[in-house]
Write a structure and sequence with these properties.
heterotrimer, A alpha/beta (about 475), B alpha/beta (about 290), C alpha/beta (about 300), A: about 475 residues, alpha/beta, Aldehyde Dehydrogenase, Chain A, domain 1, Aldehyde Dehydrogenase, Chain A, domain 2, 2 domains, 6-stranded mixed beta sheet, B: about 290 residues, 3-stranded antiparallel beta sheet, about 40% helix, globular, Aldehyde dehydrogenase family protein (chain B)
C-alpha cells in the first residue's frame, strides 16, 4: 500500500481578526445594531470569527456611500477604472495562497480546489473585466453605454470569493458602485477583499461590504437607492426578489439553482467521461449550481460505466480540507447537511438504490460521503430537486431524443454535459438542450471570457464574457 | 588630499534585439545617434539585410508558441510589459526628452501614455475574438463559427516620430493577437527602442515575438517587404516613396499591408482597433449538426 | 501458447475492428487528469516510502553508441549498491543495455538479484527484417538477458498494418522463451492517445509482459498522460482477460518529484497492486542520483550536493 502522509497547508498565512465590522465608504465601521454572528470552520466546527449583522440602517449607510461614490467613479475615464481593477487582480494574485487558505477554512472546500480553481479564476475575472473598462464602446451595446448606478449584490456560500469577483468586477468595470453582501456562513474572504480594495487605493464608497443573513440581503435589494440587483443563490429566494422588485426600475439578474443532466453516450471517451462525472458532481462537494447531478447514461454501456465510476469513487479522498491531497471537503453548514440527508433519505424511500464508497468520516464537522443513486426515475425527488451536495442520481436512456427529453424535463436550465466522440451528435444535442451552458466532453469549466447563466428557473442574465457587461449597463 | 574628480559614467552599448538576445549587427556597422539638439548620444547598430533575415527566422520560430498561448496569457504578458515600462519611467522620460527635444514633463506624459497604451492592448487579448467573431446562422444543419486568428510574422516600420509612444502603439496591436514581428525602429531616434527591448526581454515575453532592428528603414524595409516568409507589413513609418516600393514588393506573396496614414498621427488619441484587424485572418469552422 | 483475446488477431480486419472499437481518449481530459494527479503532495513518511519504492523500480539504463564493458560494469556496481555510503538503500530492479553487453552485465550482476534487461529488435528504430529482430532477441536471451525490451514497428502501426506489428511481437515473445518481454510503443511517434491505447492493447494481446512508453531516443519520451492511458489499458486488460501486464515509462524522468508523480499515477489508476517492480518500472539513468540525494535530504535534513554521489 502507498498511503499519503498528511500534507496540510499551513494556516499561519492567514490572520483572522476576532471580530469584523462592516466595510462602508472605505472604512471599517461598527453596525448600529447589536447583531453579531459567528462564522465557523465547517470541517471542525471551530469558531473562526464574529461578524457584524447589518441591519436596515447599516445597509442604508452603505447604499448612501455607494451613491456618493458613483458620480466620481462613473465619470472617471475607463482607462483609469481599468487600472484600479488591474491592481486588484494583481493583489489577489500576490495574496492568492492566503486567500485560498482563508476560503478553505471558512467554506470547507479542499485547498486543492481553492488554490487551483477558485483563486486563479478570481484573479482572471478581475483581469478580464479590467480590460473592458475602457472598451465598453466596442461591446456591442451602443457607442457610449452608461452604468446603472448602485448595484446591490447578494452572493452564495459555495464559491464565496469567486462569486464576489463575478459580481464586483463587471459592475466596477462598467462604472457602477456596489454594495455586496456575502453569505452568512462564508463572509471572511469578502472581508479580506475589503482590505484588498484599500491596498489598491480604490476610492472610498466604490465597494462596500455588508455582512448578514437573509434580512440584510432583503434590505439591500429592496433599498430604493439601489439601481441594479444581482443575486446568486436559490431559485426560491430568486423568485422572492423578482417579485419584490416588480414595479421598480431596478435592473435584475439572477443566477439560481440547477439540476443538470450529464449525458454519456456509448461512444464517449469513457475514462474521461468518468472523470467528468466525478468532477461534475463531486467538485466542491456538489455545492455547485451547475453540478451534473443527474447522470443520464446510454443503457447499452450503463453497467460498464457504473462499474468504472464506482471504482473511481473508491479513490476519492475525503477529509481535512486543508490537506493538499483532499478531494472532498466538508459540507458548508449543518443546515445544508440536513438538507442533503433529508433528500438522500427520500431517495431511498422512493426506491432508488444508494451506494457510497468505503470512506471514513471525521468525527467533528459537517460531512457527507460521495453518494450514487442508481435505479432513479424522473419522478423521484432526487431527480427533480436540487440537492446541492455530493449526491449523484443515475438514470438511463436509449436514444438521443430520449436523452434530450429527460434532460429538459426540469424547471431548471443552467447547464448540461454531453459525452460523445461524434461531433455532429454533440452539436445536435447542444442545439436542443434548454440550458445556458453546454459542456461537451468536459464539465464544470469556467472562464471569465465565457458567459454563464441559465434558462428557465435557473435565472436570467449572464455573467462572464462580453455578455456579462449587459447586466451592468443601461442598455 | 587631492581634489575629488568627477566620476566618469559607464555608457551603454545599444545593439539589436533578435530572438530574445542582443547581438551586434552581423555587418559590424554602426551609426551615430544624436539628440534633437545634435549632441552625440550613442553609436547604434546599423542592421543589414542579413540581420533582417535572422530576425524573420526568429519571429517565425516564435510564432507557433506565441499564437498558441492562451489569450489570457498573452494579456498577462502585455500587462507585465506595462509594469516594467512604468518601473523605468525616469530612464525612458530622459531618453524621450533627448530624442524628441520635448520638455521633461512632456516626455513623462509620453511615457505614461505608452504605459497606458500597453494596458489598453493587454485587455484586448481575450476580447478581440468576442468583438470580431460570430456564430453565423447559416441556412442548413451546420454549426458555423467565425473567429479571428493572427496572420503570422509581421514586419513593422516604426514611425520616425514618437520614439517610444509611437513604437509601442505599433508593436502592441500586432503581437497582442498572436502575431510575431520584426520592427525597424525610428532611424533618427532608435535608443528608446533598444531600451524598450530590455523591457521586453524581462517581461516573460518569449524570445522572438518582438525583434527590433535599428538602422536605415530605406535599406532594411524592402528586404522585409520582399521576404516570402513574412505575412504582413505595417508601413506606418515609411516615407511615401519607400511605402510604394515596399507595397509593390509585398504584393509578391500577398502580404497584408497597412499603409502609412494619410495625415500625421496623433499618438495620444484613442487608437481604435484598426491596427489589430489589419493583421488578423477570419477563420470560419463548419460542422454538421445531427445524430 | 495462446494469449487472451488472440482470436481478435485472426485477420487484419478483425484486429483493426477490435482496436478501433476501443473507447476513444479525449486528450484534454486525459491531460487534465494526469496534471491533477501531479498535484498530489507526497511528504514525510510517504515520501520516504516512495523514494525507496522508486529506487527499487529503476531500470538503470545505458544505451549509447559509446557504451563499453567498463561503463556497463560500473553501472552494474551502482545498480547493486546505489549509495556506497548507505547500505540501507535498496538495489535497483534491473540494468538495461544493448545485446552485445548483456554478457558483461550478467557477469557483473551474478548473484545480486538485479536483473539484466536488453533492448532488441533493432532498437531504437525497429527498421529491420523480422529475421534480424528475432535473431537479435535470441542473441540477448542466450547471453543471459532476463528481460527483453523490444520496439514495435511504428511505421507498420501508423500505416494501419496492425497484424504485422502483432506478429512481430508474437515472434519476439517466442524468441524470448522464459525472458520477460517489454514492448516499447514509442508513444512520441504514435502522436495520439487513441493510438497509444490501441498499441497498448495490441501489445498485450500479442503477449507483452510489460508495455513501455519510449526508447528515450525520441522526444517526447515518457509523459504522465501517456502513462495514464497505458495504466488504464493494463487495468482494463486485467479485467477483460484476467492477465496482468506491467507498465514502464522510460525517458525524461530525471527527478524524484517526477518519479513520485508516476507512483501516484499508478496508485490511483491501475491501483496499488501495480506498485511493485514486477509490475512497474522506471526507465532512467540520471534519476537514480536524484532519488539518492532526496533520500539523504530526508535522512539528514540538509539539502544534498551532487559531489557526494557516484557518477557511474
Amino acid at each position: 500500500m502507498f498511503e499519503y502522509a498528511p500534507a496540510p497547508e499551513s494556516r499561519d498565512i492567514v490572520d483572522i481578526r476576532p471580530s469584523y465590522g462592516l466595510f462602508i465608504n472605505g472604512e471599517w465601521v461598527e453596525p448600529q445594531g447589536e447583531g453579531r454572528h459567528k462564522t465557523v470552520n465547517p470541517a471542525t466546527e471551530e469558531v473562526l470569527a464574529e461578524v457584524a449583522w447589518a441591519g436596515e440602517a447599516d445597509v442604508d449607510r452603505a447604499v448612501q456611500a455607494a451613491a456618493k461614490a458613483f458620480p466620481v467613479w462613473s465619470a472617471m475615464p475607463g482607462a483609469e477604472r481599468a487600472k484600479y481593477l488591474f491592481r486588484i487582480a494583481r493583489i489577489i494574485q500576490e495574496r492568492a495562497r492566503e486567500l485560498a487558505v482563508l476560503e478553505t477554512l471558512d467554506n470547507g472546500k479542499p485547498i486543492r480546489e481553492s488554490r487551483d480553481v477558485d483563486l486563479p479564476l478570481v484573479a482572471a475575472h478581475f483581469f478580464y473585466y479590467a480590460g473592458w473598462a475602457d472598451k465598453l464602446a466596442y461591446a456591442g451595446f451602443g457607442p457610449d453605454p452608461r452604468p446603472l448606478g448602485v448595484a446591490g449584490q447578494v452572493i452564495p456560500w459555495n464559491f464565496p470569493l469567486l462569486m464576489l469577483a463575478w459580481k464586483i468586477a463587471p459592475a466596477l468595470a462598467c462604472g457602477n458602485t456596489v454594495v455586496l453582501k456575502p453569505a452568512e456562513t462564508t463572509p471572511l474572504t469578502a472581508l479580506a477583499f475589503a482590505d484588498i480594495c484599500r491596498q489598491a487605493d480604490l476610492p472610498a464608497g466604490v465597494v462596500n461590504i455588508v455582512t448578514g443573513a437573509g434580512e440584510t440581503g432583503a434590505a439591500l435589494v429592496n433599498h430604493p437607492g439601489v439601481d441594479k440587483v444581482a443575486f446568486t443563490g436559490s431559485t426560491e429566494v430568486g423568485r422572492l426578489i423578482a417579485g419584490s422588485l416588480a414595479g421598480t426600475r431596478k435592473k435584475l439578474t439572477l443566477e439560481l439553482g440547477g439540476k443538470a443532466a450529464n449525458i454519456v453516450f456509448e461512444d464517449a471517451p469513457l475514462d474521461q467521461a468518468v472523470e467528468g462525472i466525478v468532477n461534475g458532481i463531486f467538485f466542491n462537494q456538489g455545492h455547485v449550481c451547475c453540478a451534473g447531478s443527474r447522470l443520464l447514461v446510454q443503457e447499452s454501456i450503463a453497467a460498464d460505466l457504473l462499474e468504472a465510476l464506482k471504482r473511481r469513487l473508491g479513490t476519492l479522498r475525503l477529509g481535512d480540507p486543508l490537506d493538499k491531497n483532499t478531494d472532498i471537503g466538508a459540507i458548508n453548514s449543518a443546515e445544508q447537511l440536513a438538507r442533503i440527508r433529508e433528500l438522500s433519505e427520500a431517495g431511498e424511500a422512493e426506491g432508488a438504490e444508494r451506494w457510497s464508497p468505503a470512506c471514513p468520516i471525521p468525527e467533528r464537522g459537517y460531512w457527507f460521503p460521495p453518494t450514487v443513486f442508481t435505479g432513479v426515475a424522473q419522478s423521484h425527488r432526487i431527480a427533480r430537486e436540487e440537492i446541492f451536495g455530493p449526491v449523484l442520481s443515475v438514470l438511463t436512456f436509449r436514444t438521443p431524443a430520449e436523452a434530450v427529453e429527460k434532460a429538459n424535463n426540469t424547471p431548471y436550465g443552467l447547464s448540461a454535459g454531453v459525452w460523445t466522440e461524434k461531433g455532429s451528435r454533440m452539436l445536435w444535442m447542444a442545439s436542443r438542450l434548454r440550458a445556458g451552458v453546454v459542456w461537451s466532453n468536459t464539465f464544470n469549466r469556467f472562464d471569465p471570457a465565457s458567459p454563464f447563466g441559465g434558462y428557465k428557473e435557473s435565472g436570467y442574465g449572464r455573467e462572464g464574457g462580453r455578455h456579462g457587461l449587459e447586466a451592468y449597463l443601461a442598455v | 588630499m587631492s581634489e575629488r574628480t568627477e566620476r566618469l559614467s559607464v555608457r551603454k552599448t545599444y545593439k539589436l534585439f533578435i530572438g530574445g538576445a542582443f547581438p551586434r549587427s552581423e555587418s559590424g556597422r554602426s551609426y551615430v545617434v544624436t539628440s534633437s539638439k545634435g549632441d552625440f548620444l550613442a553609436n547604434a547598430a546599423r542592421a543589414s539585410r542579413k540581420d533582417a533575415r535572422d530576425a524573420v527566422s526568429a519571429a517565425r520560430k516564435a510564432f507557433s508558441g506565441w499564437s498558441g498561448a492562451t489569450a489570457y496569457n498573452r494579456g498577462q504578458i502585455l500587462y507585465r510589459i506595462a509594469e516594467m515600462l512604468e518601473g523605468r519611467r525616469t530612464q525612458f522620460a530622459s531618453e524621450v526628452a533627448d530624442a524628441d527635444g520635448v520638455s521633461a514633463k512632456k516626455a513623462g506624459e509620453l511615457v505614461d501614455a505608452a504605459v497606458d497604451r500597453l494596458v489598453w492592448y493587454a485587455g484586448w487579448s481575450d476580447k478581440i475574438g468576442a468583438v470580431l467573431g460570430s456564430a453565423n446562422p447559416v441556412a442548413g444543419p451546420y454549426f458555423n463559427l467565425s473567429s479571428p486568428e493572427p496572420t503570422g510574422v509581421v514586419a513593422v516600420v516604426a514611425p520616425p516620430a514618437g520614439p517610444l509612444l509611437g513604437l509601442v502603439s505599433v508593436i502592441a496591436p500586432v503581437i497582442v493577437t498572436g502575431n510575431t514581428c520584426v520592427v525597424v525602429a525610428s532611424e533618427r531616434a532608435p535608443l528608446p527602442a533598444i531600451t524598450l527591448a530590455e523591457v521586453l526581454a524581462t517581461s516573460d515575453l518569449p524570445g522572438g515575438v518582438v525583434n527590433i532592428l535599428t538602422g536605415s528603414a530605406a535599406e532594411i524595409a524592402p528586404w522585409l517587404a520582399g521576404h516570402m516568409d513574412v505575412n504582413g507589413i505595417d508601413l506606418t513609418g515609411a516615407d511615401p516613396e519607400l511605402a510604394v516600393t515596399c507595397e509593390e514588393l509585398a504584393a509578391e506573396n500577398l502580404k497584408r499591408v497597412l499603409r502609412p496614414p494619410a495625415d500625421r498621427v496623433d499618438w495620444l488619441a484613442d487608437p481604435g482597433i484598426g491596427r489589430m484587424t489589419a493583421f488578423l485572418e477570419t477563420k470560419t469552422v463548419w460542422h454538421p449538426i445531427g445524430i | 501458447m495462446t494469449t487472451p483475446l488472440a482470436e481478435v488477431a485472426s485477420s487484419p480486419s478483425t484486429l483493426r475492428a477490435f482496436l478501433h472499437g476501443l473507447p476513444g481518449v479525449d486528450r484534454v481530459g486525459a491531460d487534465a487528469r494526469a496534471a491533477m494527479l501531479g498535484t498530489r503532495s507526497i511528504k514525510t513518511t510517504a515520501k520516504k516510502q516512495a523514494i525507496d519504492m522508486a529506487i527499487g523500480m529503476v531500470d538503470l539504463t545505458t544505451l549509447e553508441g559509446a557504451d563499453t564493458p567498463g561503463k556497463v560494469r560500473a553501472m552494474c556496481a551502482k545498480a547493486v549498491r546505489p549509495d556506497p555510503a548507505d547500505a540501507s538503500v535498496p538495489p535497483v530492479a534491473a540494468v538495461c543495455v544493448y545485446p552485445d553487453l548483456v554478457a558483461t552485465a550478467v557477469e557483473a550482476l551474478a548473484g545480486s538479484g538485479v536483473k539484466v534487461a536488453s533492448v532488441a529488435t533493432s532498437f531504437p528504430s525497429g527498421r529491420s527484417s523480422l529475421e534480424v529482430k528475432v535473431a537479435e532477441t535470441s542473441l540477448a536471451v542466450a547471453a543471459g538477458a532476463a528481460e527483453i525490451d523490444m520496439v514495435i514497428d511504428r511505421g507498420a502501426f501508423l500505416a494501419g498494418d496492425y497484424l504485422k506489428v502483432y506478429e512481430e511481437i508474437v515472434a519476439t515473445k517466442e524468441a524470448c522463451a522464459d525472458a520477460h518481454l517489454k514492448v516499447i510503443l514509442e508513444t512520441g511517434e504514435l502522436a495520439t492517445y487513441d493510438n497509444v491505447r490501441r498499441a497498448s492493447w495490441l501489445a498485450m494481446i500479442a503477449g507483452a509482459d510489460f508495455i513501455k512508453t519510449s526508447t528515450g531516443k525520441v522526444s517526447p519520451a515518457a509523459t504522465l498522460p501517456v502513462t495514464l492511458v497505458m495504466l488504464e489499458a493494463v487495468r482494463d486488460f486485467l479485467a477483460a482477460t484476467g492477465r496482468k501486464v506491467g507498465v514502464k515509462p522510460a525517458g525524461g524522468i530525471r527527478t524524484t518529484k517526477d518519479a513520485i508523480k508516476y507512483l501516484v499515477l499508478v496508485n490511483e489508476t491501475a491501483g496499488p497492486d501495480w506498485l511493485d517492480p514486477d509490475w512497474f518500472r522506471l526507465g532512467a539513468s540520471s534519476l537514480l542520483n536524484d532519488l539518492l540525494m532526496q533520500r539523504q535530504k530526508m535522512a539528514t535534513g540538509r539539502y544534498a550536493g551532487p559531489d557526494y554521489f557516484t557518477l557511474d
